[in-house]
Protein: Beta-galactosidase
Amino acid sequence: MSEFTVGESDFLLDGRPVRLLSGALHYFRVHEAQWRHRLAMLRAMGLNCVETYVPWNLHQPRPGTFRDVQALGRFLDAVREEGLWAIVRPGPYICAEWENGGLPAWLTHEVGTRARTRDEQYLSHVRAWFRRLLPEIVPRQLDRGGAVLMVQVENEYGSYGSDTGHLGELAGLLRAEGVTVPLFTSDGPEDHMLTGGSLPGVLATVNFGSHARVGFETLRRHRPEGPLMCMEFWCGWFDHWSGDHVVRDPDEAAEALREILDAGASVNLYMAHGGTSFGGWAGANRGGGELHEGPLEPDVTSYDYDAPVDEQGLPTEKFWRFREILAAYGSGPLPELPPRPSVLEAPAEASLTGWAGRDTVLETLGGEERATPVPPSFEELGITRGLVRYAVEVPGPRQPYPLSVRGLRDLAVVYVDGARAGVLTEEEPALKEPVAGPARVELWVESLGRVNYGPRLGEAKGVTGGILHERQFLHGVRARGLDLDAFDAGVDAVPFGPLPQEGAPGLYRGTLAVRGAGDARLELPGWTRGFVWINGFGLGRYWSAGPQRSLYVPGPVLREGDNELWVLELEESAPDRRAPRLFPV
Structure:
């Protein structure tokens, strides 16, 4: 067995200096059948290590219910078999542009702002989760013949809080549950972040995208000894819906990587391969500069990240620039690239065969309707990702008054007496036209992704303040939620009817006749916003707002012949809407 330790100036493998050339690859953002290919791509780029987060909310969707925690263990086994080391970042908070930063919504609803502190109620849940998770990590440590050589304590805590005792509790828990490899923290290279986020006796690392010398000088003021490592070298960036597609010049990124290595430091490329936030798990940020208190900025489904290995697993120009630099640090010639995964042989157009309105889908797959004086939040209804229909009566007779929603998160399509009356958002919470009574008002409220970074972490979704007619609260609300997890059991119970003449919102069902199954992209021209599944696999959210214009379909999801397609359209689609189509990547 080997031993990995932290020396005074270097990482040591069996007592000899070693430099970690790592790349981030999230097992939960890559189809399992493609793990080996993506790991081989990292090796071909010149990396010797892979780093991954672990999303708690994916694996424990509700209290007492666990879902494939063993996936992490299978991934770590694949890492070892592909000849790489592994860095694991189990959180419990991970950021990662992932829903709620990886924390379960039921947890943050229960503990509120006491999350990520020494609060006993919060820590009791963390202990129970780690006791379930860590058996996937502990036997796979380097000193036991596995690939894992470091484990992170929390994640960028210094940009959030100052309860270093909370970090100490987590470090103690990791040790108590059998983690023997070195622990580390990672934070921005700023004094307040390193002060709040580091722990005595635990390796401190820094995250940045440029100015390596300045970042490492800041780290050295706090830690005069220990190996230097950039735990997140941001070689690309992520996109927001309605924003621009972000790219970074490959030559400029390569020079920033060279500066890190010239400083004698180890590095982890974030991301080496970003993958996809399948299943509607993409998170969101708050704009407004450093305070992160501004408008919601939902993350797109693609997590391509402008990474050196793109969303389809193919090398980019950045890959080749990085490979040239990293080749100088290997012990021999770099391996050749693995064969490219199979690609869809020919385009395929969907044949849509059935439709069910939103009310029908909600009544079939949704939860129980709840009648309450005030609107319940998504969390109170047990909804993580999806939508809620709120219904309320405007008493009458009364003259027309403005109708508005207080504390709306995030988007509501509003109907008055069955007629579409407008779309409300947090920034525009009032209908343009006043509403007279009596009237029945329905609000179909959709979560666009929970905040994954900053002080608004854990904020509730839905109507969190109330529905107002003029200044009067409307009481007696009926609410019913539809969680995306409900589609895991299929849609056979939904009574589908013929297609509507107009592009009405609802669930569309159809087939895609595939010849030569392989990696593909799904385009939905004229569709507005919603979610897509192929053969029961959730591809994620689509949105005509851009910048993402198609959804990546992993080849292993498709099969020869007919493939089942579900499209949940949440708004009315354009008059010139066309059938969804698959194209080769």
